[in-house]
Amino acid sequence: MTNNKSAESELTDHMCGLGSWRPKWSQIFASTKVFMIILCGLAVSQGAAFAYMIASITTLEKRYAFGSTITGIILIADNLADLVFSPIFGYLANRVHRPRMIAICHVIVAFGCYLAALPYFIYGPGVHLLSGSNKEIVGRLMKYNKSTEFCDQNNFDNNMCGESGGSETAILAVILLCIASVFYGIGYVAFYIIAIPFMDDSVRKKNSPLYLSVIPTATGIFLGGVFIRKFLPGPRLLTSLVTIVEVFAIMGMLSALFLGCPQSQFAGTHHNSRMVDKEDKSFAIGLMTAFMTCFAFIPYPLVYGAVADASCLIWESKCGHRGNCWAYDTYKFRRNLHGLTLGMYFIGSVFDVIVIFLSKRIKNLYNDEIEDQGLETQDNHMKLKTDVNKQLANSYD
């Protein structure tokens, strides 16, 4: 009876439906391909929410009068969620209903999107940006052509402290944006810690790179999946290719450092851990994400925010309170930004070389024997359900 209940529970976990309502006609959607399509939709929605936050962050700085350091705090709030929830989700991933947990976490992300829009409904449009003090700043910026004129702080009046409106930092708006960012982070954790390993467990290893590479938009990821599926390169070759790409990235950053090219952003990549047991995969990825969050994702917005603030020439000021930056020293900004990025790339490449020498310890990189048995069981769910029902009927008789 215990085995029958366990088999029936496993079967139910892979059936499509809403709660306990799981009709037979809906089981046509209980397939890996449909789940991949839904996962792609979730990835697009997450990327849109994050990209919109990044694109509008400078506007939010001006509207709610906060500097780049506070911007960094808002951007690392989702990483704090990664740090807290990554080990927890990694531990629970194989002990709960994973698709249901993914859905709940993305409902939280949707709530975070509405929460991020709430400051507009509280404070309204930024009419204070058209006030006299800000017109004065804009007028000065348009009048002088040389950046050296910006340094004369005596040109600006500070006699409008009694006027309505103002440019003090809107603390409530910052708090709401931070909470929304935390909710975003919960969705990111669910996607990378639960959804990606679940997809990887649902297909054969030789096919998983092709499935997972559909999610990002970069063509190189898709070609990488085809390359791995066709040629099955070893661990050392794979890590060597990553290091070669890092070297070319460093060369590109060198050119950007001297030519003044804008910083480029590319879609991230996700490498599934193959050096741990299958049941420990989600926990290993969660632990790795926690370490990356602690030593990379949390510090970098603060560091780059400090770099941006250090390059500011003119700060908005109202009644002794500093607001956002109105003008930057572009040469200093470019030099500090790309110089810091180049140094981080170089340090990362050193660790990539270490990984190359340690990669020979990875065994059975493309071993499908165990997973094929699991996939064969999933492909015969309906047959399993019939057998379970017969056994239950015989036990009652």
TrEMBL record:
Gene3D superfamilies: MFS general substrate transporter like domains
Molecular function terms, GO-annotated: sodium-independent organic anion transmembrane transporter activity
Membrane-spanning intervals of the chain: 34-58, 64-89, 101-123, 170-198, 210-228, 240-261, 282-300, 337-358
One GO cellular component, as annotated: basolateral plasma membrane
SUPFAM superfamilies for the chain: MFS general substrate transporter (SSF103473)
Keyword Metal-binding: no
GO biological process: sodium-independent organic anion transport
InterPro entries membership: MFS_trans_sf, OATP
Keywords noted in UniProt: Disulfide bond, Membrane, Transmembrane, Transmembrane helix
Protein name as it appears in the record: Uncharacterized protein
Organism: Medioppia subpectinata
Lineage: Eukaryota, Metazoa, Ecdysozoa, Arthropoda, Chelicerata
